[in-house]
Amino acid sequence: MMPQFVEPIVTYTVRNYLNLHHSQLLRQYKGPVHFIRRTQDEVMNLDGQHRLESNLGNQLIEDFFQTRYPKLFETEESTNQTSEVLWSWFTAPDTRDRDEIAASWNLDAKECESIVQNYIFQHPLSTYPIDLGHDLSQVQKIQVLLYLVNKHVACYPSTHCTPLPPSYFTQPWKIGGNHQSGSDSANSSDFELINSQTVDY
């Protein structure tokens, strides 16, 4: 518990020196990303522990997908069904419920992989944001999004300070192939080696 007398100092320091705009920084980065979302996080949460819908990681992840894959969120409907499905995934309490959401949309990982792979080979020089999904039906957009979510996001049922198991320290999934050493700068891209490397899924 932070002593009350240091609260003004901590507040000033965080807001002026440690207030990183994560979404803004992430939009500038074009390389592979892997999120680890602590589902019981009591610190990065607006309403306290066990409130899945107010986990601040949700907004960061949604912004990431909307920035990189905007066509998946385009719809002719008055409500954005893609976002609604994404948030239902965010608020699913465990892996089984998240798998049930995918199953309810008849998610076929191999079919989605084929859609993504075909797009990459047709647009080898693409940089984010990409037009993946521009020619897909609404159902296909949701299926591909759920496929991508499972590639980019790992959920860990823990509080903020619980040490992560070693199994969570994995290389981020790369949409366009293997990266050379040092290619994780803001100017690098998932697509940079698509013409010279085999796509690795």
Brief summary of the model shown:
The chain is mainly alpha-helical. The chain has helices at 7-17, 22-28, 56-68, 81-90, 95-104, 109-122, 138-152; strands at residues 35-38, 153-156.
Could you characterize the architecture of this molecule?
- Helices cover 40% and strands 4% of the residues.
- It is mainly α.
- It has a domain at 32-163.
- Strands 1-2 form a two-stranded parallel sheet.
- α2 runs parallel beside α3, α4 runs parallel beside α7 (138-152) and α6 (109-122) packs across α7 (138-152).
- The protein is globular and about 60 Å long.
- Residues 178-185 and 192-201 have low confidence and may be disordered.
Tell me the distance between the termini. Answer: 45 Å
The secondary-structure class comes to mainly alpha
Question: How many helices does DSSP assign?
Answer: 7
Widest sheet: strand ordering:
1-2
Average pLDDT confidence is: 86
Order of helices and strands: HHEHHHHHE
* Beta-strand content: under 5%
Radius of gyration: 18 Å
